[in-house]
Amino acid sequence: MVDAVTHRYPSGALAVENINLDIKGGEIIALLGPSGCGKTTLLRIIAGFIAQSQGRIIIGDDIVDALPPNRRAVGIVFQNYALFPHLTVTENVAYGLAARGIDKATRQREAQRLLELVQLPSMAERLPRQLSGGQQQRVALARALAIKPSILLLDEPFAALDKNLRLDMQIEVKRLQRVSGITTLIVTHDQEEALSMADRVAVLSHGKLEQFGSPSDVYDRPQTLFVNTFVGSSNRMPGVVVSADRTAAKVRLDAGAEIVARPAGGALSEGGRVTVCIRPEHLQFVGDETGFAGVVGMSLPLGATVVHEVTTADGSGVKISQARIGETRALENGAAVRLAPLAPSLANAFPATL
Amino acid sequence: MGTAPASRDVTSYGMGLAAPLALFFLVFFVAPLLQLLWLSLHNDTAALHWGLGQYLHFLTDPFSLSVLGSTLLLGAEVTLVCLVLGFPIAWLYQRVGPRLQTIIILIVLLPLLTSVVVRTFAWIVILGRQGIINATLQSLGIIDTPLKLLYTQFGVVIALAQVQMPLMTLPLITALGRIDPNLDDASCSLGAGSWRTFFRIVLPLSLPGVIAGCTLTYAAAITAFITQSLIGGGQMLFMPMYLYQQASTLQNWPFASAISIIFLLAVLAVVSVFTTLGRMSRGYGGA
């Protein structure tokens, strides 16, 4: 559990600001954010490499702030794996056990068991540089799991792997996590990774926690404009609130047309400027006079979906993606169309920031 | 097909470019060395009679052997002092900010920017009977009579260690800089304390630098004529001075040549031991 943690750089700049994360045992949590958002700093604070300026880190029932990293029982898999290049795979995995003064026979047995767990028993006597990237990562996982940590931290674990291998390793990590039941924290800037792997996602921006919720919460019910635009892709359409209550707001878009949107970031005031976010897959072409008008620019067939770029009356571009079911209506460049959201709950209105 | 002639060109260029230096070495290094060998194989000072007499003389003379032994020992002591004192500096260098790094590099390199003679005379001022150390200790009342520091093995080792320090620290800084800092963190997070991390991770991974530094320091320390003779004075005799006396004062060129060859072989033997160790540890550096 991360309790109100704030960290300032010596220069006084805030690295992370007042972050609270209550993590349940056995959960996979993703810390998601663009580079420089403080997610790695937070990870290093939890691991004990950085002492936070304020707040507490609680693991289980213990406040671990006073403990150095080597006494926190935190397992870390580094982005570049940081395997010891001069030690064999077995020695790498057994390293943490040796540091705990466990006898050699037990160490060997335990290392062998972990290598079987990560499906690398035949590589035991190799040096790390003789392994592929995916194999090195498995060794790094085995090494971190060997010390039976109470929490496992993964720092951008899949960034160095190519796309196919990445998916394999994501499945592998999820399988290992299920088997061991260990609480896991993944730091990533890859939203697909965060959404597919994590039980809950914490979205960070500029050192602040923007939202902490399930992947579907974060994707479907974003609480801030940042979350809405950072996670998935989104059309941002400016407009003015015509009327609003707690559950629905009528917004007049600058692009023309009045639509009903969900006030996502708290109450909206009538007459105030808002930004409405609608995902490309939540827009549809409409035949009648509802929705807003636009002119089709470019159409990109992306396999399962086709993305059309539409220029609206106020000159801004909007993307709409359509599933390719049966025959898709062919759209000429310059065709006049009208667009509307699929449902009011799929358009999120946020107070406009100037 | 297209690249093969091009790559052959590149290698022949390389040979051509190295030729001037090769010629230089041939004329000014290999030739004198052969002359030295030729001289050493004569039994008389006029170099008229062939024989192994000079070598037999050296190898059966306890005095000559003791000079050789004390010189090799001196090199080992200086190397050890440099390693023990230099390692922390190199380690510190990798852990401080850029501004402090500049200062450390400056301090490490500064000795190289002043003449060896100047540095050695500075040590005479420090170590002498009325020198800084003795004066300080006496004024503090710690000692009554001045300590004998100058003209002792201790003095020579300390002065040489300071003079040769950059040769140890620079390779160490390079070697330590190549170690991924995450390895430190990884070791720590796995439960290892600082000492275990140092002996199991940092030291093994820095071995190539340690061996390079030791080789350079050792070779420089045992051949350091000026520092050895000025700090050692007349009572401490090491190979370079012994050699100088035989050649210059006694005009016994064949014997001096034999001493040179024996000294050269002794140094080569020690250096090749270091190199072999280096080759064995090379596997560590990569990955």
From TrEMBL, chain B:
According to the UniProt record, one GO cellular component term is: plasma membrane
Q: What PROSITE patterns does its record include?
A: ABC_TM1 (PS50928)
Please name the source species.
Bradyrhizobium hipponense
> Which SUPFAM superfamilies does the entry link to?
MetI-like
Pfam families associated with the record: BPD_transp_1
Report which superkingdom the organism of origin falls in: Bacteria
Keywords, A to Z, come to: Cell membrane, Membrane, Transmembrane, Transmembrane helix, Transport
Q: Does the keyword Transmembrane helix apply?
A: yes
Record localization: Cell membrane
This chain's protein is named ABC transporter permease
| Protein family according to the UniProt entry | Belongs to the binding-protein-dependent transport system permease family. CysTW subfamily.
Q: What is its main location?
A: membrane
- What membrane topology was assigned to this protein in its record? Multi-pass membrane protein
